[in-house]
Each structure stands twice: as structure tokens, then as C-alpha cells.
Specification:
alpha+beta, four-stranded mixed β-sheet
Length: about 210
């Protein structure tokens, strides 16, 4: 049986994407909690032995180390039956993975980090700029989900898991109340949360 070992920490939405994929697929994994706030990922030994990019998640699969959440999700979709893509879905899934990494998660994760975890809090103009970029990305997803149940077609794919990386963190951290501001996204989140194996970030990664 394939052995999975996930280097992660509970505040990392990118780690959550991978942990959630494994959980929904019913695959057990050993979690290696990384002391990100203590600077572990900046240590040369960690970068040499775990990930030269200095980032989590890192998924060890039978001794092979995979990094970057999008790459890991694609690997799982190619090797795990429960996450396998239907014929012809790959280009559309890739399109949304790239959108997520470039505009959706990229902006939301940075904004959350700046407002919830940095001291002193950044200048308000910076936060306003980031919030506008998030709202633009949210608007795209909100409109898209007005016409279908999941990001690509009528079934959950790794595109959903990628976009879900940060939206389930508390609204006090995100600075957005998705339940009232984006009803289509919230309905999609509800569908995801009813999927077998789903857990909220701080539950799954603790």
C-alpha cells in the first residue's frame, strides 16, 4: 500500500488542499508538523533535506518528495482512483488550477496572512489593494458557480480542492463573510463540506 507523509502546518491553506484530497480519497497519511513560525523552513538543513524552495506542503509518496500543491493534486488525480479525472476534463481542471494559484489563492492567502498574522499590520492602502484583487477573483468564481455545482462539471475534482484551500478558514482571518457576500460560493462550500472525508482546516491539520 502506498505510504503518504505530509509536511504541513495548520495555518497553511496549501497544506489543507493536499490533506483534504487525501482525506476525501480515504487515504491515511502521517503528518509532520513544520514549525513555520519558528523559522524551520528557512533553515538550510530543512531546505536541503525536505524542500529547497522553503515551502510547504511537501508530500512524501513512497520516499519521493512532491512539492507545490498543484503538482501534488495532479499527481493524486493521476494515481488515486477516487480523485481521477474524467476523460477530457484535464485541460479545464488545469485552467482552474492555474487561475487559483495565480489569482485566487495567491491573493487571498497573502491578504489573510497580512491582516491576521503579521505585526505591525500593513498599511491600509496595501490591504485595500489586495482586497480589490480578491474581490475580482471571487466575482469570477461566484458567477461561474451560478451555472454549475462544481468548478468543472457536476462532480468534485482537484480544481475544487485547490480553490477550497483558504475559504474554510474563519471569516475573522479572511476578512470576508462568504456566506453573505458570495451566495454561490457559499453553496459550493456547503456541497464540499458534505463530501465524505471533509474536515475543516484546523481540525484536519491539528
Amino acid at each position: 500500500m502506498t505510504a503518504y507523509r505530509l509536511h504541513c502546518f495548520k495555518e497553511s491553506g496549501n497544506s489543507y488542499k493536499v490533506a483534504l484530497a487525501l482525506s476525501i480519497a480515504g487515504l491515511p497519511c502521517d503528518k509532520v508538523v513544520v514549525d513555520y513560525f519558528g523559522g524551520e523552513t528557512r533553515l538550510q538543513t530543512w531546505r536541503t533535506e525536505v524542500n529547497e524552495l522553503g515551502e510547504v506542503p511537501v508530500l512524501e509518496v513512497d520516499g519521493q518528495k512532491l512539492t507545490q500543491s498543484g503538482v501534488i493534486l495532479l499527481h493524486l488525480a493521476e494515481h488515486v482512483g477516487a480523485l481521477r479525472l474524467s476523460e477530457g476534463a484535464r485541460p479545464e481542471v488545469l485552467r482552474w488550477l492555474l487561475f487559483d494559484n495565480h489569482k485566487f489563492t495567491a491573493n487571498l492567502a497573502t491578504y489573510r496572512w497580512l491582516r491576521a498574522f503579521t505585526t505591525p499590520t500593513p498599511h491600509e492602502a496595501v490591504l485595500t489593494f489586495m482586497r480589490q484583487r480578491i474581490a475580482s477573483a471571487f466575482d469570477i468564481v461566484e458567477k461561474h458557480l451560478g451555472a454549475q455545482r462544481f468548478i468543472v462539471g457536476d462532480r468534485l475534482t482537484i480544481a475544487d480542492l485547490s480553490l477550497a484551500g483558504y475559504v474554510f478558514y474563519p471569516k475573522e482571518e479572511l476578512g470576508f463573510d462568504i456566506s453573505t457576500e458570495y451566495p454561490n460560493m457559499y453553496a459550493w462550500m456547503e456541497r464540499l463540506s458534505q463530501t465524505s472525508g471533509w474536515q475543516a482546516p484546523y481540525e484536519l491539520l491539528s
